[in-house]
TCPR2 protein (Callaeas wilsoni), 212 residues
Amino acid sequence: MASVASPVIFKEFCPLYYLLNAIPTKIQKGFRSIVVYLTALDTNGDYIAVGSSIGMLYLYCRHLNQMKKYNFEGRCESITFVKLLSCFDDLVAVGTASGRVAVFQLVSSLPGRNKQLRRFDVAGIHKSSITALAWSPNGMKLFSGDDRGKIVYSALDLDQGICNSSLVLEEPSSIVQLDYNQKVLLVSTLQRTLLFYTEEKSVNQVGTQPRK
C-alpha cells in the first residue's frame, strides 16, 4: 500500500523589519558616530538573539513582541557568537572578539522560573575571538571554542550562582563548530573533525586525511 504524502506548506520569507527597526543603525559615542553592524545570530521558538559590533546583545521575545538589550561592562567590543538554550530556564551564551564569554540567565514570568536576571562569566582562559559555543541540553555545561584552537568547558550551577571553567582541549587550528550530546563533544576545526569523549578525556578523529 502506497504511503500518503504529507501536505506541502508554502511559506513566505521576508525581512524582519519589526526586528531590524528596533536595532539602531548608528550610535553616538562622544563626538563620533559609530555604525552598528550585526555580527552574530541565533534563534529558537521563544527568542531571536542578535549580536552587534558595539558589544550589545539584542534579544527579541517572540511571544511578547519585545526587544531587550544586554551588554558587557567595560570596553565596547564586537560580539562574535551567540547561543540560546531553552531548558528549565532560558539561557543565552555570548562570546566576543577578545575571548570574553558570558551567560545570561533570563527572567521568566512563568511560575517557579527565574525572576532575576543573572550573569555568569567564563574568566580569563580564552585570549582570542570566540568562534563556537555549545550547550548541554540541561544548561549545566557550556563549551566554548576560539580561533586559536582552545576549547573551554564551563560547569554552571544556576541555583548557587557558580560558574567553574577549565581548558579541556587545544587544537593547532581555529575551532569552527561545536556540538554536544551524551557526554560526547563534536569538534570541527579548519584542519579536522573529531569526537571528544568528556568522561574519558579521549579523542577520536573523524576520517584520516586533514582538510585542505
